């Protein structure tokens, strides 16, 4: 980064900045810096630039140079948006690593990394703020022209204003008008982060004198009793707290806003606007004390010893073994050393559940970051991390992109979870693997925690690349749950099954309800019925955009596509043969909830899946209701399997284990074991032994036996033999290429050509092209090419460079027209 010691000298030098644009372009673009901006440019600041004929974007300064681009004439940057860099140089290096490793572009990583409120883009619409009551005569000529034009026409675009003023650089003028609150700018360009402002009140110091205060009361009680009530309420509140907001005073006094405003006008109360946090409980600091059990202490000591030699340690602790308390001790050590901590969780469900537990120990030191936050909240967290105000960040996978200053520890809880993998759009990264690289950049340590580790992590621990610590006993001596496997086929034959519930499961549910205990039922499919089928001609409604059948949702009464969101009305007559004999096949969480309500009318039943947790606080409300025992039975998808800890959940029912066990994927057994073991681990926590009922057609399946015996090692060694034989991870690296096109015949030729070109370089390491399980999504047909490479003796960087070259060469041919090629590194 250039230093500007002599401002006068520097101001006349010609600088160029290479910027990262939020676009999927292969190279970063260079812009010229106007002389007057020379002293303001810094790596990591946002600048407004024009790209193409008329589009404008926010870009991040990547490099500053005096060397102009050779191939084109550099345009000028139009504006600088920040007083200080909002992205650190370490972050930019991290983005570049991610783009390189996951075979995408810097701009795609920037798009994923920055909260949308920090990004500006063009095709902007400008409107007049009708609430502005200021003096327009103070505007300069150009500002006045824009306001006058908006008085005549309610909406203008950037290009309209460019033509109106006869100049390209209109963004600085618009920014000033926006800051003066005169115009509104649409989402694409609006600098959308606005601090949350609140009015706080203080009593005029004159009335700190008791005589003056008594005199004031005497006047107000006669002339304005409501105002007198408000002053009394203020004095009462001031004894309990330092800061009193206008809203609080209105609520406490019941005097109404007009009375408070009158007190402000009379200067009895002094009003001050302050920026307050949107983040829940930020100022609340509740500190609790706990002691580690001997097993936890041993594991903690082991982890610390391993950290002396290894940068990454795997903590393999069975469900309910108390891994969170070990994490807390490690976080305390990191904070004591003055360093920041990132605590990653795979699901927002876990984030909201665990945050309250962690706040007991760290109070205002902890921040939360995930996609359920609105834009303003995400920017607020971003800025607090940048300022080092937060020592601990708890978040889902996107939290790896935050601007950490000194990251000393990253905890990746439930490290095996597939939720850490981003599948679409690019970058298709795994947050667990990215976290390891990020910690290395900061000289920090990584703790991976899981009861059922991913085979890759366990392999790395067994081969001493990672350290390994184990917790083999449940906290408090609670026994592992009793697991009973029930044959669906057998009970169907005996006619003892009710709907989808075997007699064994119903017996345990009823017993739990009688004991005032709670039940969780797991079915890894949402909706009411996965398939609507005509009994006469076997017609099944399919999505018009994707190669999947539509799922019936009873709450909407429509058929839904879970891939593109398409919906259509449920037919009462078969569109193919005209028959009225339509029936629903299969079942999802919605149907389980519905039928359970008929079987157990007195039970309080709730559902936790994507459909019931879409709104902002719905997920937290469900968890709170479960914690407060307002729910007897919770029906859910895989959300219920991940880290939930409730004292009175004693029965877990797995409605149909076969859907996981029979999935056509080399990881099916690993994932099934993880899911079954994790769901089972929700039962019998905090001193109570639980019961798990697994309903299945295949009662003798090897994985079910391994779950019952809690034998992770047997699963690992059995599966690893197969992986080694068929060249799968962790012994081989895998890269998948999806080729997409709207015409299946063109796609066939494109995929065949690409596979042939790849085979010229990699031979039989190239498999395919194959048609994936879902062969069309959003009107794009898909073909997949899989590449497998040995971990030893092959340079993965050279492999990726060659694949990039082949894709680039393919994209220069006429054959590639209309195609999309998506590389996915470590795709599973």
Automatic annotation (TrEMBL):
It comes from the Bacteria. Keywords: ATP-binding, DNA replication, DNA-binding, Helicase, Hydrolase, Isomerase, Metal-binding, Nucleotide-binding, Primosome, Zinc. InterPro entries: DEAD/DEAH_box_helicase_dom, Helicase_ATP-bd, Helicase_C-like, P-loop_NTPase, PriA, PriA_3primeBD, PriA_3primeBD_sf, PriA_C. Zn(2+) 2 binds at residues 543, 546, 561, 564. It is an enzyme of class 5 (isomerase). Its cofactor is Zn(2+). It catalyses: ATP + H2O = ADP + phosphate + H(+); Couples ATP hydrolysis with the unwinding of duplex DNA by translocating in the 3'-5' direction. Binds 2 zinc ions per subunit. Residues 304-471 form the Helicase ATP-binding domain. Residues 569-723 form the Helicase C-terminal domain. Zn(2+) 1 binds at residues 534, 537, 574, 577. Its EC number is 5.6.2.4. Component of the replication restart primosome. Belongs to the helicase family. PriA subfamily. Initiates the restart of stalled replication forks, which reloads the replicative helicase on sites other than the origin of replication. Recognizes and binds to abandoned replication forks and remodels them to uncover a helicase loading site. Promotes assembly of the primosome at these replication forks. This is Replication restart protein PriA. The lineage of its organism: Bacteria, Pseudomonadati, Bacteroidota, Sphingobacteriia, Sphingobacteriales.
